Every structure is written in C-alpha cells, then in structure tokens.
Amino acid sequence: MIKLNEAPASGLHGELMVPGDKSISHRALMFGAIAQGKTVVERFLASADVYHTMGVLQNLGVQIEEQGDQLIIEGRGLQHFHAPTTALDMGNSGTSTRLLMGLLAKQPFDMPFFGDESLSKRPLKRVSQPLQAMGAHFELTDGDYLPGVIQANNQLRGIRYEMPVASAQVKSALIFAGMQAEGTTTIVSPLASRDHTERMLQKFGGRIDFDGDTIRIEKQPLLQGQHVVVPADISSAAFFIVAALITPNSNITLKGVGINPTRDGILRLLKRMGANIEMVNRHDDEESVADLIIKYQPLHGIEITAADIPATVDELPILALAASQAQGTTTISGAQELRVKETDRIDAVVRVLSQLGVSISERPDGMVIEGGKSLVAHNQKVALSSSGDHRIAMMIAVAALITKGSVSLIDEEAMAISYPTFMADLAQLMPNEEIK
Ligand SMILES: O=C(O)C1=C[C@@H](OP(=O)(O)O)[C@@H](O)[C@H](O)C1
Ligand SMILES: C=C(OP(=O)(O)O)C(=O)O
Fold it and tell me: Which end of the chain has fewer CB atoms surrounding its CB within 10 Å, N or C?
C-alpha cells in the first residue's frame, strides 16, 4: 500500500517522454519473431504484459536479447518455432493471448496456454470462433476461457468475417492467421479500431489492403526483419494529460507521443471538453508522433457515444476522472467492452469515484458523471483499491493530486502491467512536492 498525497498538488511542470507504446511493442516482438533476419526494437515498453509476449516467443525457440531500451530479435520465419517446453504463460495480457492465438494457429504441435485470475475471466471465443472457421483448433475452458490449448494444425483457409465488436485484438488475430491461410481473408469491423498490425505488416514488407473498417489479406511471403522505433504510448500519456488539465497551475510537455488517428480519441474528446492541447514537432512515419503541450484549463461535460469508443477505449477511466472535474454532465454510452477488460472498468470507475464523493451512476454500457465537485476523501482519509487493474491504479494516483484529505492505494503493483515507472515519472513533473 502507498500513501499518495498529503495535500492537493500545486501543479505539474516540465517535460517527460512516457515509455513506449504497449500495443506496438507486442506487435514488434511478434513480427520480429516471424520475419527473416534481425529486428531491432527501440524504446520497447519494458512492462509485465510485453515481457509475457517475449517469454512466450522465447519458449517457442525465438532468440530475443534485451540491450538497454532495445530488443534484438533473431527472426526465423513462421515455420521454425519449436514445441514449447512449458505451457505458454500469458500473465495478465489480453493482447498477448488473442494475437498469439492467431499467430500460432498453424503449428505442428499442441501449445497449452494459461493466464492469471483476471485474464482467465476474459472471453476468447470472439477469437477462437472465427479462427476455427479458418481451420484452427482450440480447447478452451467452458469453450471461452483460459486455461486452454492451441492445438496442432496444418491448414488455414481465408474467410470473410464480420466482427460483432470493433476489437483490434480480434482483427489482429485474424490478420496473423490470414497471413498463413490459403485464399483471401476479409475482415469487416463495425467501427475502425487501432491499425498498428496493418501498418507494421507493411513495414515488414507484407501486403494488406485496409481502408477504415474493411481489411483484405492473402498469404504472405517471408517478411524481412526491420528497425522499429516505438512511439511514446498515448494511453500512458493520457494520465499526465488529464493530471495537467485538472491540477491548477500545470504546464507540461509530453515528448514523442504516438498520435495514430485510431488511437488519439482522448485528444479529440478532451478538446471537445474545452482543453487546449497544443501539438508541435509532428513527424509522420508508419506511425505519427508529436510533442503535446498541456496546460491547466477548466473543462465542460460532453456526450460520448459508441462511435467515439474504439479510439479511446483504454483511456475512458482517466477521462471519467476529467469529467468529474468538468462543469456539467458527461455521459458515456456504447462502452460495454469496458466490462471485459482487466476488471469490469465501468464498475471499478464508478466504485472509486463514488468513494471520492463524485455523483456518478452506472449504465449497462457506460456511465453518467455529474462534474464540478471537489474530490474529498471520506473522513479525511481513504484507502482505494484498483482491483488489480493498472489503468484504475493510475487513475487513482492522478485523482489523489486534487483530493482533499489523504488517499492511499492498496495495490500499486498493478501499474507494472503497462507502466512500471509511473510514480517516478509523476514525481518528475512535481519537483517541489513529496510523492511516495
Ligand atoms: O490490440 C491491442 O493492442 C489492444 C486492443 C484493445 O482491446 P480490444 O481489441 O479488446 O478492444 C485495447 O483495449 C487493448 O489494451 C490493446
Ligand atoms: C485492456 C488492456 O490490455 P490487454 O487487453 O492487453 O490486457 C489495457 O492495457 O488497458
């Protein structure tokens, strides 16, 4: 347990480059493993989730070396994995699990796989069902959950699949399988979701047609190893963006943040709430990056609907905190996917913000937040739990910057899933304050 604050913070200042993007780090490892030759991944995210993808690939015989903030991967093509020596450990990571189910859908040996308690409650049928239609075989607990087995299989065929949910994990699993399948795989999504897999496949020399919500892919020739520079993770940056917007006197610069248009929903929504976020030093490569300058600014409530969700899905907990400080009401709907993340994030956000005195109510597919009231620790003192969810843990740490009374976080270790150095980076932006 850590004590987060004594008194409200007096402002965030200075520059920070948050760690590398988690989604892109996972994908760089996977493409590096199946390409021919060496792949170097610069500024990869050294966090628990990414180490699980790395551990699984090493268990399958891929050589991966860590040198400072770089990973060096010796790729050997898709046909050269070895049967694993132990069951594949996916830890807490939905991205590792679902993407690897597609990547490993055509191997000549069985691969048992498992995850932690939270991951074992997250649905996998959304991936196994279309992959089975392509010819893959899985054994899953109750047909939907870990632990399970990715079974030996020697053929995949392309299908046309209309995804019921706009999930980048499902889409990416089908792209990885489509790369190895006979014929064309067509994937149609109800809304566009993050397209890092598509962009990285092209960088590694593959061919894919993608146009918003429809993707077409054929069997791919051998990919070639690449040098990948991972942008700073906008999902991690979001905690500092909101921290600066709600803490009076703040003025910060976040360097080199990934601003891929399928990920930058948080910026668009905060601008709709009245935020002034300046973007400078923009560079466009296969992924676009820019520096973001954020200053404290009063916000107002908005309506967030289904079309807004995919580009900001992981940022909704911290956005709910911003909404609690905005004038007026914010309504979030069409966000039922939050219920099947590391925790039920609708339930977790409503629980935590209610404990801090926010008028917030739960809906089946979102929440309604009445903004404009100060956060107050009940009886001057409150100990909050993230229920083991990294994004909820970081939201609590940001809330504590403006809470009257003392806030403790029971399970701060959850932050290591995506951002092990979060508390140290927050302290760096508050040189005059004491943060544990
Ligand atoms: O593809 C990815 O890297 C991710 C996709 C999203 O999940 P869904 O595909 O379930 O929406 C997101 O919540 C997750 O943190 C990372
Ligand atoms: C949902 C998340 O990740 P994953 O699905 O990979 O566990 C997240 O990082 O917020």
Answer: N
